[in-house]
Target: MATE family efflux transporter
Amino acid sequence: MELDKKMKLGRLTWPIMIEMFLAFAIGTSDTLMVSRISDDAVAVVGFSNQFFNAVIVVFMLVASGAGILIANRLGAGDAYAARKLAIVSVVLTGAIGLVVSLLMVFGAGQIAGWLGMPPDIRPLANDYMSIVGGGMIFTAIGNALSTAVRNTGNTRSPMYIAIMMNVVHIFLNALFIFGLLGFPKWGLFGVALSTLFVRAASVVLLLYVFRSAFGGRIGFREFLRPDWSRSREILRIGWPLSMNGGSWQLSQLAITGLIGVMGAQQLAARTYMNTMESFAFTIGWSFAMAVQILIAYLFGQGKLREAYRSAYRAMGYGMAFVLFNTALMLLFRKQIITFFTADPWIVDMAIVLLWLNLILQPGKMLNMALGQSIVAVGDSRYMMKISIPSQWLVSVGLAYLLGIRLGWGLYGVYAGMILDEYIRGAVLYLRWRHHRKRGLFADHGDLRAGALAPAKGGLQA
Model:
């Protein structure tokens, strides 16, 4: 079957990896170009993007739950149900995105204050957050469209669109920031406009692909009459996943707020480190996303043994790539960091944090591979129950205790993040093995209720 050929770990992973690297490249180009404006501008972009990432997780409430179910239904041979689920996902996510956009257009300044953004950079943040935040409806719809398309096994089309948008974004940044070809030098305002345009254009292209992703072409009238009965099963899978992801993003916002208390230099250093760490994170998350699609599909087919083993394969490959990538950054650490900033304090701090990153990234990979595997079989509630307490008590708690109270600064922040990743990773590993020993997911309530019931029934020992 053609779909079976698409649903291979390698074939799913590499387009996702390229797409995510290009998304990372957009963020890097923003940080690099904005760094030519000022370190304050970099701090605004970094702080704002932490908030926007937290908002994007809300969209996952629908998009990710639908994505898992789409792959599962396709594995079970029910393309009609997959189509209906995808349409509901786009409509619901778009509605949430519209509400968020309106809140950002009229309340960006107040939100920046609530988040604890340093007062001296709030005026700069207000314009950036209102423009980029006002376009969150495009981010929401784009997220739903790309998730649905990827879960049909078509991971290449979103990649091609990302390539085009990456080129356009860099070009527009050059025009709007530096005033090339006679354009005015708009600085950070120009970065915001460029981001808004690229996200809107991405939606148009993704919608074109989406309409043909489920066999017969989807008519626009179908978006006006979604099958709302499907929303319940989407939310049953999606809400714990969204709560978990939202909690993680909010915990990162809390940590960023704590770093903001430490000072502008520390905040800028963390922003640069986020950019560099994304290099390793992107590779690991690509394997995790691919294995989630694969396991949901295999589970729909009833190929449970293969689904179980796929988690370990993704973890192994991902770990190797992540460690290699992190080691490469360490090898060229001086050249990479000084490319972003000449501040000697930030350079010295970032070099030390890169060494800590060598410990952090394997823990992240363990978490990502097993976490997405557990989610793919409907066990998202367990991951939520384990992850949220660890994120706040360990990661945020130690960031405050070690970083501020004991004066360790960014070292204390990283100590908390490292311990949090390994605690959650170890618990998820035990959970995955627990499912195997108990008959490979047979005892999970959501599965008995039919949320992700294997098409063939029974278990493969």
About this structure: The radius of gyration is 22 Å. Residues 2-448 form one domain.
